[in-house]
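Look over both lines:
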Amino acid sequence: MLESVLGCKWSLTVLALVRGGVCRPGAMEHAVPGLSKKVLNERLRKFVRYGVLSRHAYAELPPRVEYRLTPFGERFAVLVDGVDALQRELDGES
């Protein structure tokens, strides 16, 4: 699962956006130059499939969809933070 989710360079970016409160796909797409709608949707679907994010579609016009971290996703994000800290340590950063 870890390899499948993190195998794309955009996965950590999408996860960071949701953790930072950017929960709508359109806002995510606009927040990151170079992130295409196709790749964003692939990442979001994969995160939902593995239980990292939950998807909530609102019954309104125009349609609105929001993504949030699940309890598992919050635990997963802590692990990702640990891996990031190890990488910074290896790179000689504080």
Notes: The chain has five helices and two strands.
